[in-house]
Amino acid sequence: MSFSETTRARAREIIARYPADRSRSALLPLLHLVQSEEGYVSPAGVEFCAEVLGLNKAQVGAVATFYTMYKRKPTGEYLVSVCTNTMCDVLGGQKVYDTLAEHLGVGHEETTADGKITLEHAECLAACDYGPVMTVNYDFFDNVEPQAALDVVEELRAGGRPMPTRGARLCTLKEMAVQLAGFADERDGAVADGGPGEPSLRGLRLAEQHGVSVPGFDPKTPIRSKAEADRAAAEEKAKAEAAKPAPEPAKAVEPAKPEAATGSTAPDVKAPDAKSPQVRTAETRQPDAGTAVPDAPGTKMPVDGPAPAPRDARAAEAAGAAANPPAGDGKPAGDAAGAQERNLKEAESGTGADGGDPADASGTGVRK
Ligand code: FES
């Protein structure tokens, strides 16, 4: 399979959205992109993503098999997902699914013979307030009854495009995959077709009614680059350090006086620690020079001598990374130059990270 020049140009555009040393972050949109050409993430699609990002196929396969939106076998023009999770189920979701399965003659993740409809049952589609819900290529049909669901699939099979309850008008699964890869829906006015439903706006309405707003939030706040955010964080830290009061000289501790007898016969109760539990927990997790860790197993606290310097998070992270090389195949995680060449050589010699399992024809860790 050779991907089209359009797909290759889009892949370059996606990768260019990320910093040069973070290109593998482009993997999720790239998987949608290859799906937009083939209708699913094929072994060739996995190979394409691995090649353009300098990853190995096992790394791409691990991601592609984790998310249900990446399909592992050819999928129909319309993906009909019926929520059978708890909320929708009690409202009739399973009945909707069963009715469609019987009518179409397909089960979960199966496609009708005409290639039009792939049916799947889905876990919560994040629209519980409209249950039972069904989506077609991720566009919603709310409060759906079995007969209404049948009408939708029949219209799709007849070449029609029924309007979803809200959101943009329907497109094919391949067209939707282009949008999921981060490209605008180019159909004239498509995204203005439908607004959000009233239950989705309920929180907003209540906030308006009660005069609740996000304090000090300017909707025009620009999104900062990582370098700018790091610089701002460093400035904030420096300001906080400068504003700290100078430490008071240590006071001599007076020996405890024996308590006066109260005449009470009740057993002595130890006074509670004045610190809140949250403070104690935070101190135990992030001890500094002034906080002892009495019960952390294996902790070696200096008994005397100068107090240790406060931890430097970056230095600690670097030391941890150096002491803990990546698990698994031991190869660079992907962005290092030369990773692709090494992967190819290993694949040719059959000594890949996955052990060169000949039964794993896809190279994704899935035995055929
Ligand atoms: S349970 Fe169906 S959308 Fe949440």
Automatic annotation (TrEMBL):
It comes from the Bacteria. Its cofactor is [2Fe-2S] cluster. Keywords: 2Fe-2S, Iron, Iron-sulfur, Metal-binding. Residues 225-242 have a biased composition (Basic and acidic residues). Residues 243-261, 316-339, 356-368 have a biased composition (Low complexity). SUPFAM superfamilies: Thioredoxin-like. It holds the Pfam family 2Fe-2S_thioredx. Residues 210-368 are annotated as: Disordered. Belongs to the complex I 24 kDa subunit family. NCBIfam families: nuoE_fam (TIGR01958), PRK07539.1-1 (NF005721). This is NADH dehydrogenase subunit E.
